[in-house]
Sequence to fold (323 residues):
Amino acid sequence: MAMAGGIGFTFIIALIGYALSSVPKLSVLGQLAWAILIAALIRQLWGYPEAIRSGIQFTAKKLLRLAIILYGLKLNIAIVFSQGLGLLLRDVVVIVFAILVTMLLSKWLKADGSLSLLLGIGTGVCGAAAIAAVSPILKAKDEDTALGAGIIAFVGTVFAVVYTLLQPVLPLTEGQYGIWSGISLHELAHVALAAAPAGEGALAVSLLAKLGRVFLLIPLSLVLMYWMRRTGRIEKGSKLEFPWFLLGFIALSLIGSIEFGGTPLIPAGLKNGIANSASFILAMAMVGLGLNIHIQSLRKAWRPLLAMTITSVLLAVLAFWMS
Fold:
C-alpha cells in the first residue's frame, strides 16, 4: 500500500507540474522545476509523507534510472560519429570547461563543493538528467541532487529565453546559431526551446551538438568512478557501485540508431512517445528528490548558484566563439 501510494503521489505531483508548465506564463520554469518546487513546498508546509516513503524512494531511485535508460533512444550514435565528430570535439571542450570553471569559482566563493560539482556537470553535459546520473557515483546527498536539478532547470530556462531574444540580432547563420545553442545550453528542452525559432536547420544542428554531450556522459561517468577511487573519497574496502543503468542507456541508443534501408527500427512517433514518457518519469523522480529539500539548505545554495551562473555566461561566450 505504501509503495503504490508513494508512486501515485509522485505521479500526481508530476502531472500538476506538467499542467503548470503548459500554461504560457508559467512555462518558463518547465515541468522538472515545477515538480521540485511543489514537492519542496509540501515538505515545508506538511513535512515528509512518511506513510508512503517507500514508494517515493522507489520513484526517486529506481524509476529515475529507468528514465535515464529511456533517454538513450534520443541519441543516434551513428549520426554522432558520421557527421558530428567536429561537434563532439567542441562538446568535450565545453564539458571540461564547465566543470573546471565551476569548481574554481566555487573554491573562490567558498561554495559547497559537492553541489557545485553537480552543477558543473549538469551545465557541461545535460542538465538535471546528468546530475541524476552521476549522483550515485559521487555519493551525493539527495538534498544536493534535488537542489542541483532545480537550480539548473531554472537557470537553463532563463538562458534559453535570452538566447531566443538575442537570435534575431546576432551575426550568426542558421547553422552557427544551432551550434552555439547546442553546445552551450543546459538541457535538451532548453536547446529545443532556443533553436526552434531559428528554423529547422538550426534545430537539427543544435540537437546533434547536444546529443554529443549526452553521449559523453558515459566516459565522464567512468572518469568520475576512477577519480572517486583514486582520491580515496570512498572508504577503503568498500565497493563503488557501477552505474549499470548507463549500459541500458547505451543499449537503447544503439537500438534506436538501427535502420534498415533508411527506415528506422523504431519509428519516430514511438521514439517521441517513449522520450515524453521518460521526461514524465524523470519529473516523478524529481518529486521524490524535492521532498528532501529544507528551506534552511537554500541558504547555502546561493554561492554554487552564482558559480554556475558565471560559468554559464562564460560558456556562452566560449561557445559563441567556437560556433
About this structure: Residues 180 and 321 are 8 Å apart (CA to CA).
